[in-house]
Amino acid sequence: MPTGETISTTPMLPSPSTDKYRLGPLVMEKLWRGDHQNPDLNQGPYSTSLAFVEAMAKNEISYVERNADSRMNFYRSSTEPQCPSEAVGLLKRYLNVANAMVPVPGSETSKDITSSTLWHPDLHLDNIFVNPKSKRITSIIDWQWSAVLPLYYQARIPRAFEDPGLILDGAQVSDLPRDYAILPCDERTQCDVMRRSKACQQFYELETSRKNPRHWNALQMNHLELRRRPTRLALGLWDNDNLFFFRKALMEIKEQWTELCPDSGQCPITFSEQELALHAYEEENQQGIGGILKLFKDRWSLSTDGMVDPAEFAQTKAAIDDYRNVFLESADNEAERELFSKLWPYQDTGS
């Protein structure tokens, strides 16, 4: 992006200018990967945000019905496969509550935050070039995951300014610990880094509220993450093996229905007792494995994909093997031991 060029308008373009633009066709990688390239899929243009939200589910239904085969989901069962029809059923329920996933029509900011917006999804410091003399941005790189989508769907704090911890509304940057002066050097450094990180995000939020009201309004949208999570999971639902998280997102929509759609009566979707029991069992297993992954990350900085420094491979593998044996020995019977073996997150592929 050459110096001096702009990709946004401040103030906003007048309504007649924005009304003539429509969302799509989309070039998002998820919509064109592998068999998703089928020309019958609807990549746009879409006339409204609701049309976009519904198209994502309809596309996935078409894809699953044509291409998906039953497979094992060991978080839930070691004997019964998971069928594509379950994914289709969840996607159809998604369509029944799609109006909960977009801003409330007619509100003062709904049109402002649903307008089609070009968004860079990976703004961190390695992707932003700054002239050291003028202190002005000269270029931004890594646009390959960018897309033009409704602003509310993409709005977030950029990675360059995002604090990794949880910042509550109205929270202030904490004071230094009383014993800061006598803390070891590494702990003082950690305190400084945490305070700078929180201050950076809060400064970004303050400047955004003053200078970019469209983005700020989108960030302040009621139940923002709850509304957009199902659509994000619907994209590539089957290939990404996201049925558990997709079902959980729909359950949360159902629980918050009266707040999301206050004038729409009773929520139109339900879940049977059997579905709820299976989901609870799967959630218990997901949380157990999640705890193991967190332990390995905290102790050895081991990522979920198992990548490790070659110099530390032997030591890390030995420690993980010990934990695996303890995990398997915790099984109550041989069937559960076999299930635990299949759930273990770091499988030896023999390669």
What do you see in this structure?
The protein has 351 residues and is mainly α. The chain is 46% helix and 4% strand. A hairpin with a 6-residue loop joins β2 and β3 (137-140). α3 runs parallel beside α9. The longest helix is centred in the last third of the chain and has 28 residues, at 273-300.
A few lines on this structure:
The chain is mainly alpha-helical. The protein contains 13 helices and 4 strands. The chain has helices at residues 15-19, 49-67, 84-96, 110-114, 151-154, 185-211, 213-219, 224-234, 243-255, 257-260, 273-300, 313-329, 334-343; strands at 116-119, 128-130, 137-140, 147-150.
Write the layout of secondary structure elements.
Blueprint lengths: L14 H5 L29 H19 L16 H13 L13 H5 L1 E4 L8 E3 L6 E4 L6 E4 H4 L30 H27 L1 H7 L4 H11 L8 H13 L1 H4 L12 H28 L12 H17 L4 H10 L8
Antiparallel strand pairs: 1-4, 2-3
Helix pairs in contact: 2-3, 3-9, 6-7, 8-9, 12-13
Supply the helix-strand structural class. mainly alpha
Beta strands, count? 4
* Gross morphology: globular
Strand line-up of the largest beta sheet:
1-4
What's the gyration radius in Å? 24 Å
The ordered string of helix (H) and strand (E) elements is HHHHEEEEHHHHHHHHH
Counting DSSP H or I runs of 4 or more residues, the number of helices is 13
For the report, how would you describe the main beta sheet? 2 strands, antiparallel
Give the termini distance in whole angstroms: 43 Å
Binned strand content: under 5%
Query: Are there runs of 5+ residues with pLDDT below 50, and where?
Result: 1-10, 167-171
Average pLDDT: 84
Helical content stands at 40-55%
